[in-house]
Amino acid sequence: MVSMKKHSEMTRRQFVTASAAGLALGGLAHGAVAMQAEAAPLNDQPARGPSRVIIDTDPGVDDALALLLAMRSPELKIEGITAVAGNVPLELTLPNALRMVEIAGRNDIPVAAGAKRPLLRRLVTATYAHGENGLGGAVFPEPKRTPVDEPAAAFIRQTVRKYPGEITLLTIGPLTNIAAALSSDAELARMVRRLVMMGGSLSGGNITPAAEFNVYVDPEAARIVFQSGIPITMVGLDVTRKTSLTDEHVRVLEAEQNPVSQAAAKIARNAINHNRDRGFLVGPNMHDSLAVAGFLDPAILEFQDYYVDVETTGELTAGETLGYSPTVGDLRRRPGTEKEAATNMPIRGSAPTLASTRTSPVLRENFVPNAKVAVGVNSTRFFDLLIGRLSGKH
Ligand code: BDR
Ligand code: CA
Questions:
Q1: Is any atom of ligand 1 closer than 6 Å to the C-beta of 62?
Q2: What is the pLDDT of residues 352-376, one digit of tens each?
Q3: Cα of 130 to ligand 2 centre, how many Å?
Q4: Is 9 exposed, middle or buried (0-12, 13-18, 19+ CB in 10 A)?
Q5: 65 found inside a domain
Q6: Which domain covers residue 118, as residue numbers?
Q7: How many domains is the chain partitioned into structurally?
Q8: Can 287 be counted among the known catalytic residues?
Q9: H or E element: which one contains 390?
Q10: Closest atom, ligand 1, to C-alpha of 214
């Protein structure tokens, strides 16, 4: 088991007390510091204390558990949660986010309502995986909390500007809110410390053979994000496919009597049953929790540098993420010549048509990575962290 002590100097009891009182928190995951230090575009000083984050989400079964995990993690100072349409419409993702905040007893965290639909497309939902209510059919009372007045994009902009170089965006839904914020403020991207996303895949999709759901829903938004210059960590299906929730995990959650563990157990139990009823052979996978956990404890994931771009025009492939790397695939070189390969590797799109010379405005002569892509996962370490924190045992 990964012990809580390893992640923070602060005990669970101290953290819960400090959170409830709205006090400043002490202690920070070493991993989170490492990730931030290397990422910081504006502020390269390692942050003291917990990492400031905004979580953008479309709850969603795995979003709900990811939110609960984040709210039980003393390494994070959650400046806000922004809801977006995705797994289900915004009319459901927003109250679901508010419900999670209430269950976690974190009424100090503002929640903002975001986009009702993708930038240019009609919304496609994933009720086949998350049920009609987004929580696998698990029913909770209507939330009493209400969202803040600012829409999500404005909230993100204001918060990033308030703490330039400090905010990490943890995105676990379609990237519509983030793209809207970036498009509204040309200076914003360089003020964001890092963006850690659950999204994309370099090994095939889950809603089409090409595309992962979050990128499929709003590929134009994803492309804006990948080309924004923000240091990106992509936690995609390549690793999140290895996070299938089991009955044993749920039993551990059911055994603990605190509200977070009980709520997580209820959502997880419903999601497993929903999956089984529909005959799915795999999952439910804890995609979004893995992205959060990888930020808390980077030893859970292994990364490789890529230039990632998003297919936006493919009739069958829109939402596919392409990862270019001089050290992977058929164009890789003999050891010792990688440096030359890196500077000589062109970023290509499809061949030019007769009518034009270029098919994309973003082709590059040379390889310059824009993302750290997760390529390996320690699933046991991940579930130790997730179930340990949700249950309150660690
Ligand atoms: C992603 O899509 C959603 O269904 C999940 O919540 C996760 O964010 C996985 O492809
Ligand atoms: Ca999600």
A1: yes
A2: 788 876 666 667 778 889 999 999 9
A3: 10
A4: exposed
A5: yes
A6: 12-243+280-312+371-391
A7: 1
A8: yes
A9: helix 379-391
A10: 2
The DSSP element (H or E) to which 160 belongs, if any, is helix 152-162
Does 118 fall in a domain? Answer: yes
Does 126 sit in the ligand 1 pocket, CB within 6 Å?
yes
Q: Is residue 3 part of a domain?
A: no
- Domain contains 346: no
213 CB under 6 A from ligand 1? yes
CA of 119 from ligand 1 middle (Å) equals: 18
CATH no. for residue 68? 3.90.245.10
Per-residue pLDDT reduced to its tens digit, 155-186: 999 999 999 999 999 999 999 999 999 999 99
Sequence-distant (≥ 6) Cβ neighbours of residue 368 within 8 angstroms: 307
Instruction: Retrieve residue 120's tokens.
Output: 């240019």
Q: Is the pLDDT of residue 22 over 60?
A: no
Residue whose structure tokens are 């053979």: 209
Q: pLDDT digits over 236-247, tens only?
A: 999 999 999 999
Q: Does any ligand 1 atom lie closer than 6 A to the CB of residue 65?
A: no
Phi, psi of 221 (to 5 degrees): -65, -45
